[in-house]
Records
---
Amino acid sequence: MAKMAKFCELVEDYSDVADFIVVYISEAHADDGQWAFSDNEYAIKQHSSLKDRIHAAEILQSSGVLCPIYVDNIENEAQMAYAALPERLYVIQDDVIQLKGGIGPIDYRIDILEKYLQKLVKQE
């Protein structure tokens, strides 16, 4: 959730130059999955239906996420199209990918997103 807190800071700081969204994909650390953490703040099992995924997204929204949350379909089409599991940052402008962040958790670099947003502010 520390990464989400930093992401929310960017949403607050740069919402005048960018629209932010989160796309909720399959659960990377589901309680019933291979990569489960014993200290997960929320008990979320791998989604077996769209209803499960929507419920998980609602939990995330209630935690204070400051932008819209969209939900990938249960076939994980967005996740596969953007190679997004477990997490990834993108900047899309005029239907063109301008920034494709590394695959998390190791290469999830929110500082690179912040630098990109800073450049946008300077261009205005």
---
Amino acid sequence: MAHLNGTWKLERSEGIDELAKFMELSEEHTKLFKEMKPTFEIMKVGNGFDCKMKYSDTMVKDHKIPLNEEFDINNDITGEKIKSIARLENNKLVVKPVVEQPKSLFSTDEVINGQFVVTMTTASGVVCKQYFNRV
């Protein structure tokens, strides 16, 4: 999974408005979510991944994602802590909630045509994609 390793900068997003509406984000949070161009770092370490999402110099979120075991991850959008499990499936990092909730998000991280693509999908089928370029 070395192809995922690296530092990536958000280029564009699709489906932000729909996801924000589904997540019941305020207009202010939706605007912020749409305007931010974070840098994402991911590195395969042992049996998992170390990830860092840098939204600004003062707002950085670190995530340790072990493979094939339950772990708690904080949803950067809502701040909610979610018990999840991560697996590698066909060269993709797939993170799913252990127990599906109405506001659950499934994420798939993969490299497509040289871009790091994060696809967030809700249980009801709302899809948001973020496209990152390697820095």
